[in-house]
Amino acid sequence: MLNMKSKGKMITVALLLALPLSTATGTIQSLTLGQTAVAATSSTTATTSKLTDSLKGGYTVAATKLDVPWSIQFSGNTVYITQRGGGIVQIKNGKQTVQKVQTKKPLRVVGEAGLTGFVLDPKFTTNKMAYIYHAYEKNGEGFNRIVKVKLVGNVWKEQSKLVEGIPGGRIHEGGRLAFGPDGMLYSTAGETNRRELSQDLKSLGGKILRMTSTGKIPKDNPIKNSYVYAYGLRNSQGIAWTSDGKLYASDHGPSGAPIPGGGTDRTGLDEMNLIKPGSNYGWPKIMGNETAPNMVSPLYVASSKAIAPSGIATTPDDTILVATLAGKSLKEFDPVSKKMTDILTDVGRVRDVAVYNGKIYVITNNTAGGTPEKNDDRLLILK
């Protein structure tokens, strides 16, 4: 597997988008972006060749100086990226603009909490609607909410709320949003370091949630009158579907931190899971390769050295790309062989990954918890 470790191969030249970018070395050439995006899902029929096999080394730089970027979305020749401290970066016709986001409840930015998940409405080109996951405060306590926003001019304005009262805190916020092949909106929600929430079906923390685009509970959800689609998760930040409709999710394993009430967690044991409706993935009752009745063990478990998986995306050949924070790399996970392989290294922390028009895009996350270089954080396109 290709391993891009040589900084001499890191080429900051022609963009593969219509995104010319002014840099200290000149203006990046403007090329044409495709018309079909696959960020969290893939409905493309699997092919015999692997997308990652075509990579020749290095990457191009599509955007720089992003401030704690979190989620990538595409529309035509335009890229949108959320920033955890607020604002959505629009990259269009070579111009990088931070657009304001106006919500009816002020954005709470504390630790890992802020503006995180983001997905465009399937009809965005005509209705300019999107969905965001953001932290807020009520009576001194942190929460998260999912709301529909509309791009009006250069401002994203809240139109309606879908869900409020999702547990919040300083860490383990979850927050990934994606539309599934069934047309439903899915969201990850962390347990905010309150591990008991993961097994509590009355709480939305430590779960994968499923809802309609208006925030209603689907009649076919596995738990009656509940948004909960799967539970027993710790801090899932990535969800994606393969072409056969299977849902996969990344999940952060224990972090070696003190356990509320006494004791200390193990470290590592990050997971990749095959998500089935109504299933219990065990946290905190089981972790790693442990088993228990009526609990599902992961497809893949990392070692005791954490990789901290965040966003994931499927390729047309149905492998899964995994952005890792502590792992400081983009990895490829084969759900059949259950092997994890490095694809891109030496760019620092990687928060999100997307597949768009046959190209692989990642955003780095060195401005939060890393060691940022001069132009961090960046949107990169693998070559």
Topology:
Layout lengths: L21 E2 L2 E2 L9 E2 L20 E5 L5 E7 L2 E6 L4 E5 L2 E8 L12 E6 L3 H4 L1 E10 L2 E12 L2 E13 L6 E6 L5 E5 L17 E5 L16 E4 L6 E4 L5 E5 L19 E5 L24 E2 L7 E6 L5 E5 L4 E6 L4 E7 L4 E7 L2 E6 L14 E4 L1
Parallel strand pairs: 8-12
Antiparallel strand pairs: 1-2, 3-25, 4-27, 5-6, 6-7, 7-8, 9-10, 10-11, 11-12, 13-14, 14-15, 15-16, 17-18, 18-19, 19-20, 21-22, 22-23, 23-24, 25-26, 26-27
Pfam family, one: GSDH
Keywords: Oxidoreductase, Signal
Enzyme class: oxidoreductase
Model description:
1% of the residues lie in helices and 40% in strands. The protein contains 1 helix and 27 strands. The protein has an 8-stranded mixed beta sheet with strand order 5-6-7-8-12-11-10-9. Strands 3-25-26-27-4 form a 5-stranded antiparallel beta sheet, with no helix packed on it. A hairpin with a 5-residue loop joins β17 and β18 (247-251). 48% of the residues are buried. The model is unreliable at 1-47 (pLDDT under 50).
What CATH architecture label applies? 6 Propeller
C-alpha termini separation: 14 Å
Shape: globular
Structural class comes to: mainly beta
Biggest sheet, in brief?
8 strands, mixed
Low-confidence stretches: 1-47
Strand content: 35-45%
Cα gyration radius (Å): 19 Å
CATH fold field value? Neuraminidase
Helical fraction? under 10%
SSE sequence, one letter per element: EEEEEEEEEHEEEEEEEEEEEEEEEEEE
Please report the first level of CATH classification, the CATH class.
Mainly Beta
Q: How many structural domains?
A: 1
Query: What order do the strands of the largest sheet run in, or round the barrel if closed?
Result: 5-6-7-8-12-11-10-9
Full CATH superfamily name: TolB, C-terminal domain
Based on DSSP secondary structure assignment, what is the total number of beta strands? 27
